[in-house]
Write a structure and sequence with these properties.
This protein is an alpha/beta fold. The protein has 2 domains: 7-121 and 277-298, NAD(P)-binding Rossmann-like Domain (Rossmann fold, 3-Layer(aba) Sandwich); 124-276 and 307-316, Dihydrodipicolinate Reductase, domain 2 (2-Layer Sandwich), CATH 3.30.360. Helices cover 35% and strands 30% of the residues. It contains 9 helices and 14 strands. It has helices at residues 16-25, 37-46, 56-60, 76-85, 100-113, 127-137, 163-179, 276-290, 298-316, and strands at 7-10, 29-33, 51-53, 66-69, 89-93, 117-120, 144-154, 184-192, 202-209, 214-220, 222-234, 238-242, 247-255, 261-267. The strands form 2 sheets. It has an 8-stranded mixed β-sheet. It has a 6-stranded parallel β-sheet with strand order 3-2-1-4-5-6, sandwiched between helices. Helix 2 (37-46) links the parallel strand 2 (29-33) and strand 3 (51-53). Helix 4 packs parallel to helix 5 (100-113).
């Protein structure tokens, strides 16, 4: 049963407009806050039945239950903390902040105040990732040993951030989720700046976790072929999720106790075709109604930023 008073989306830019559309379709959107006059007027025209605010403080003074923050990452900490202090539940796009200490402060404050804090780690709501997580949790594949991800394409090169901070939050959240969120032990990273000095275009990161689990993340926006996939190596099987074709393949192959290869074919599970952003938005609304902790809660946001920050430190030497 709905017992919240709706949400206000803060930021109507490239990604904010998608959140606006989904929360509107879910009949939860009551307002949009946007400082850019042109974007604000465009939003008001598209959604004449919702309130638009030019000022964040004015939006917070309403009786709305929650705010959804879709502004540039450097603004996330201050906006999210201000909203929490105003007694609002908060959904903030990835990364939650650009510093681990700030992310931890937000998560701890939200917990102390009994507020919902959710991070927009969209891939955790992708039905294929949900299927893989549940399948691995069932134990049918045996112990998970290693997760490897690739996020490569000839993409939009940025001046204000490198490819690691732009692409990797998605994959770091997936790695942690599929490995069962083990404690981090070691981070190794290398990055190449081919186009602009000091801004990495191609990054490789190796992660070691408690219990011997490992992961590798490769991301690049200077690559000729679009590749987005996740590979999971377990004791009994190998799972591959091709994000481009939206297909999961389970390979019945591995190496036996005598170090001999074993290959017994492969199969493709049936995975529901649903829009992950709508699932993510609905999950936030469900959390507002039930007060349950989100799948991508503040603690998850902290864990992701910690890896992002430590990998950047390793790249910087």
């Amino acid at each position: 049963m709905k017992d919240y008073t709706g949400v206000i989306v803060v930021g109507a830019g490239n990604w904010g407009k998608n959140l606006i559309r989904n929360f509107y379709d879910l009949e939860a959107l009551v307002g949009v806050a946007e400082v850019n006059t042109e974007l604000r007027e465009k939003t008001a025209t598209a959604y004449p039945d919702i309130i638009t605010y030019a000022d964040f403080a004015a939006a917070l003074s309403s009786d709305v239950s929650a705010v959804v923050i879709a502004t540039p990452a450097p603004t996330h900490y201050q906006l999210a903390m201000t909203a929490l202090q105003a007694g609002k539940d908060v959904f903030v796009e990835k990364p939650i902040t650009l510093r681990t200490d700030e992310a931890r402060t937000l998560a701890e404050y939200a917990q102390q105040q009994g507020r919902i804090l959710m991070v927009g780690h969209l891939l955790l709501y992708q039905p294929a990732i949900t299927w893989m997580r549940d399948y691995l949790a069932s134990g049918k594949a045996g112990r998970v040993l290693h997760v490897a991800t690739q996020r490569l394409k000839l993409g939009k090169v940025r001046r204000e951030e490198n490819v690691w901070w732009s692409f990797a939050p998605h994959d770091v959240s997936v790695v942690l989720d599929l490995l069962g969120n083990p404690p981090l032990e070691k981070v190794q990273a290398t990055g190449q700046a081919m186009l602009q000095p000091g801004i990495a275009d191609n990054v490789h990161v190796d992660l070691s976790f408690a219990g011997g689990k490992t992961a590798h993340i490769h991301c690049s926006w200077y690559h000729p072929v679009l590749q987005r996939n996740t590979v999971v190596i377990t004791e009994k099987q190998m799972l591959v999720y091709d994000e481009v074709s939206q297909q999961v393949t389970v390979y019945e192959k591995g190496v036996d106790a005598n170090l001999q290869n074993r290959d017994e074919g492969s199969w493709n599970p049936q995975v529901a075709a649903s829009e992950p952003l709508k699932i993510e938005c609905q999950h936030f609304l469900d959390c507002l109604a039930t007060r349950q902790q989100p799948r991508s809660d503040g603690g998850n946001g902290v864990a992701v930023v910690e890896i992002l920050e430590k990998a950047q430190e390793a790249m910087d030497g």
